[in-house]
Amino acid sequence: MNARRRLARYAQLCCLGVLVWGVAVADDEGPPLPLSRPDVIADAVRSVPMELADIALYPLHHPRAFLTGAAIVGGLILVDKPVTKAYQDHVETPLAGFHLPTPPSAVTRLGPAGADAWLALGVGATSLAGLALDDPRLESAGLGSLRAATYSVLVTQVVLKSLSGRMRPLPSLSAGAPDATYTDNPYDFFNHRVPTARSDATGSSFPSFHFTLYFAIARVYARTYDNTLWPYALATVGLASNIRSHHHWVSDMVGGALVGTAIGDSIELGPKDRAGRQARLEPSLHEGVPSIDLIYRF
Asked: Which SS3 state, helix, strand or coil, does residue 297 take?
């Protein structure tokens, strides 16, 4: 029993470490954005081309942050097997019985389940409350989170997982044998995977979609309310619920957290974010072929 308690405390400290790390990464914004009351929904739609361009060009706009993140993830990949084994044994095992309460069936019927359903409920409630109360800050947080979730699916599920094709680790690296889905080789990249927005098992380990999603949305709320504590605390609780369902190497989770932070940073939350930048879609002809060009200025 004493050993189990020590493991539980160790797991709690690890989760707290993730929270503190997230707060440190996110806490660089300064004062809250001055939000006015324009047509927030139309403004959110108009911001999509610029946000997509910002995400695609993030390595060019933030080379130091990108190279630092790449170095961290690359270093973790080199030691992923022992680090992930320790994570499974000392973090996942003590937290294996932790689950959030069953979400309302009205939400789960729409698709998300477990912690994802609570996340969808929170984001949806924020958006609706903002519209009902005529509160532009609530609207901005809710609509910004919806866009962050959409971009997380596009960037992680469709693009990065398909490019990396990394196999997921065995559910228990301490005891288990590789099969068609799980491996004990952290360098098993570039397996064939058809690009899809759906969750699948084969060749879909890097980066973690859930870490991308939760960190992207936490970043939006942290920026909107100039508060990093409660958004990342809630994200940590959501990620800890049903923790064994993730099936990721540690570098997958860290990579997802970094990608999610970049996505959250790219979301427009007010006039301050648009200063000096412009993006628009324009129809054009290239050698007689009709196309749509993204015009981006920064």
From this structure: strand
Q: Widest CA span of the chain, in angstroms?
A: 75
Cα separation, 33 vs 60, whole angstroms: 25
Supply the DSSP string of 72-95, one letter for each residue.
HHHHHHHTHHHHHHHHIIIIIHHH
Q: What is the pLDDT of residues 133-186, one digit of tens each?
A: 888 888 889 999 999 999 999 999 999 999 999 999 999 999 878 888 899 999
What is the rounded distance in angstroms from the CA atom of residue 147 to the CA atom of residue 293? Answer: 21
- Contact assessment for residue 197 and residue 153, using Cβ atoms and an 8 Å cutoff: yes
The SS3 assignment for 39 reads coil
Whether the bond between 207 and the residue before it is cis, its omega within 30 degrees of 0, is: yes
Q: What does DSSP assign to residue 183?
A: E
Separation between Cα atoms, residue 148 and residue 170, nearest integer Å: 30
Cross-strand bridge partners of residue 279: 296
Query: Angle CA(231)–CA(236)–CA(237) in degrees, nearest 5?
Result: 100
120 φ/ψ angles, rounded to the nearest 5 degrees: -60, -40
CA dihedral 99, 103, 109, 115 (to 10 degrees): -40
Residue in the structure block whose two tokens are 């970094």: 258
Name residue, tokens 């699948």.
200
Cα–Cα distance between 289 and 10 in angstroms, integer?
Answer: 60
Summarised one tens digit per residue, pLDDT across range 76-124 is 999 999 999 999 999 999 999 999 999 998 888 888 899 999 999 999 9
